[in-house]
């Protein structure tokens, strides 16, 4: 009996993953408004009842897609920052990884989707921010907090994220996108230009070079 229940749950998870994969393709290629639960059901040749048993709404399905994309994005960033004490070297690695993740095609397509349709569908903009940028901000703020005060960590997080996302927007607007060497130069200049605050009392200060 337990084995049968396990198989049913496994099949359910596989079906859910199949739906999310199809929805991901549809949302990124066609946009939020043009994607429908019915069209995805027809593409997968499954009943609409099956679709609704997994996701109660298109918004819920979109959130599942965002969660999947953010999980892929976050794995790369967390790999650099998790359990790390601040150093300029670690920040440099994380910033380069962050830029590379931002420039992946799925990240660009999701960013454009939210920008183009977020005003019409504010729920998708909110879902994207809470599950994506807000999560990344928290990880970077925690990293800075290993050395700096809470206020300074918040300020440094704003500066770093604003600089990197602004540079991403600039890259997308250029006829020829900057190379990886150009990205490294930008990150090096960014880290070098910051007037780093004094460490908080009792913080573990590690070499910055």
UniProtKB/TrEMBL annotation:
It comes from the Bacteria. One of its GO terms (molecular function) is DNA binding. The keyword Thylakoid does not apply. Pfam families: TetR_C_7, TetR_N. Residues 36-55 bind DNA. Keywords: DNA-binding, Transcription, Transcription regulation. Residues 13-73 form the HTH tetR-type domain. This is TetR/AcrR family transcriptional regulator. The lineage of its organism: Bacteria, Pseudomonadati, Pseudomonadota, Alphaproteobacteria, Sphingomonadales.
């Amino acid at each position: 009996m337990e084995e049968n229940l396990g198989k049913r749950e496994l099949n359910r998870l596989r079906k859910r993953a199949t739906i999310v994969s199809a929805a991901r393709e549809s949302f990124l290629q066609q946009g939020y408004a043009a994607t429908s639960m019915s069209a995805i059901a027809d593409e997968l040749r499954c009943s609409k009842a099956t679709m609704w048993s997994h996701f109660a709404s298109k918004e819920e399905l979109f959130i599942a897609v965002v969660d999947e994309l953010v999980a892929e994005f976050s794995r790369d960033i967390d790999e650099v920052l998790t359990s790390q004490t601040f150093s300029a070297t670690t920040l440099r690695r994380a910033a380069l990884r962050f830029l590379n993740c931002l420039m992946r095609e799925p990240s660009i397509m999701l960013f454009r989707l939210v920008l183009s349709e977020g005003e019409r569908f504010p729920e998708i903009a909110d879902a994207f921010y809470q599950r994506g940028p807000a999560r990344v901000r928290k990880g970077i703020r925690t990293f800075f907090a290993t050395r700096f005060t809470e206020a300074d960590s918040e300020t440094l997080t704003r500066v770093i994220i604003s600089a990197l996302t602004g540079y991403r927007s600039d890259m997308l607007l250029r006829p020829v996108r900057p190379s990886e060497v150009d990205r490294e130069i930008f990150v090096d200049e960014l880290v070098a230009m910051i007037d780093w605050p004094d460490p908080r009392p009792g913080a573990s200060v590690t070499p910055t070079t």
